[in-house]
Amino acid sequence: MILKLISRSKQLVQHSPARITALYAVLALLLFSAVLLVGLMPADAHAAQILEPKQISVALPTLAASFNPHEQVGHDQMENMDHGHDSGLSVGTALFYTARIVYYTALLLAAGLMLWFSGIRSGSDEQRKRMQQWSLPMMRVLLLASLLYVFASARNLMEGYGGGGPEWVRLFTETNTGQAWLTLLILSLLGFVVIKASDTFKLIWALLLLAIESWSGHVAALQSNMNLGIVLDFIHLACAAVWSGGLVILLGLWFADRKEAGRFAERFTTAAWISMALLVITGASITLLLLPSLSYLFYTSWGIWLIVKIALVALVIVTGALLRARVRRGELPHGLMLKVDASLMLAITLIVGVFTYMSPLPDNAPVRFHKMGETRHFTVNITPNEPGTNQFEVKIWLPEQLGEPSEVKLLLHSRDRKQLAPFEVPLAIFADKSYESFPGFVRTSYHAEQMDIPFPGKWTAELKVVDKSGGKLDESIDFENY
């Protein structure tokens, strides 16, 4: 499909390049105007309150006090879908993901094409001529895809926030995410100039384009090792661009000139093999940075999509090995292998467009535990149940003749670090105004509002209760947080 679009654009360019370029420029201007018009529309009367100036922060990864780090890099809505808060896939959501998938495909192919101008052998005039012909339509696709991607992402990010135009302006001028989007659009426009420049400028442009994307991805939300994560993500994207861009060039040459395809394949298979090795290494390293444990892969849709992506990459490695062996024997690349490789590339790009919008970490759910007994009932609540400060609440119901307990303790045991001594929660009685009651029982309520859960993992809350008759209750409640 991509090659058909390129072929049609090539035919149009041969007839009237100035008119076609002007047409795309007008369309790009209209799309960008649509972004501004949506932002300049009056805020709805029932929208959330306007962000105050002090709420906007320019420090990565926080967008504002009202935007958490995941919202800045576009995670929250998908995480809600992860946990069943969305009833289904709406048309708007489908279009949003389509825009992301098209953008990532165009990004990798455009960057890869520009990188390969510095990678082909000197004297490969026919290859260079073909690549130059494909450059202009590829830049048009990138510009349109970037505009749609920025429009869809910005609209999704600002949904539910009032303020109209001024808040949209501040999104693009006072936040890292907005500034990255503006830079992306500027680079997409500069692409039309770069295709006529030297190979060095093409190389620099491609690297800058990939750097912007790596700077605004999941790794930018890391609280530690952020710089390392961004570097790894940049290398990962660059290798993906070399592989995917080179594959499309090879497939295009295979259709246009089998002899040139054979010559390019000698260069491509070696570069693809090195790129794939680096993709595996950097991908694994980024995953280890994002996840405290590999077991988290099975807790979220992000992890499941990543597992599927890994399986597809394994198939790519097998296909690439067969292709490389064929080229080393001096044979032309097999058309079926190229088509399978291209199909796998598109499938991987589709997954990337979806799972880069998801949070790699599971949602933490508050602990709500209640148990009824013949002689005593109890409730243990932990809110919000995440690393850091939490509110603990314990309610004990004892028979009226016993009254309040003589002793209540709540201990936290780490099941991951069993060598650590348990953490005691400093409970204190409080005036509970809730209406839970059981005939014949007296309720006593305790809470602790400033108790920290020091780190994520598997925990056991041990409740120890001693009543005035000497009776004891010892109950364990297992829970996890991420």
Which bin fits the share of residues in helices?
Answer: 55-70%
Q: Helix/strand-derived class? A: alpha+beta
Give me the count of strands: 9
Low-confidence stretches: 1-88
Helix/strand order: HHHHHHHHHHHHHEEEEEEEEE
Strand-residue proportion: 5-15%
Largest sheet: 5 strands, antiparallel
Query: What's the N-to-C terminus distance?
Result: 42 Å
Mean pLDDT reading: 80
Strand order of the largest sheet: 1-2-3-7-6
What is the 3D form?
A: elongated
C-alpha-based Rg, rounded: 29 Å
* Contiguous helical run count: 13
SSE layout and pairing:
Blueprint: H1 2-15, H2 17-40, H3 69-72, H4 76-82, H5 91-116, H6 125-158, H7 165-174, H8 176-194, H9 199-215, H10 226-256, H11 258-290, H12 301-328, H13 335-355, E1 367-371, E2 377-383, E3 388-399, E4 407-414, E5 423-425, E6 428-429, E7 441-453, E8 457-466, E9 472-481
Antiparallel strand pairs: 1-2, 2-3, 3-7, 4-5, 4-8, 6-7, 8-9
Features:
13 helices, disordered N terminus, 482 residues, alpha+beta, 9 strands, five-stranded antiparallel beta sheet, 56% helix, 15% strand
Structure description:
The protein has 482 residues and is an alpha+beta fold. The protein is 56% helix and 15% strand. It has helices at 2-15, 17-40, 69-72, 76-82, 91-116, 125-158, 165-174, 176-194, 199-215, 226-256, 258-290, 301-328, 335-355; strands spanning 367-371, 377-383, 388-399, 407-414, 423-425, 428-429, 441-453, 457-466, 472-481. Strand 1 and strand 2 (377-383) form a beta hairpin. Helix 1 (2-15) packs across helix 6 and helix 5 (91-116) runs antiparallel to helix 6. The longest helix is centred in the N-terminal third of the chain and has 34 residues, at 125-158.
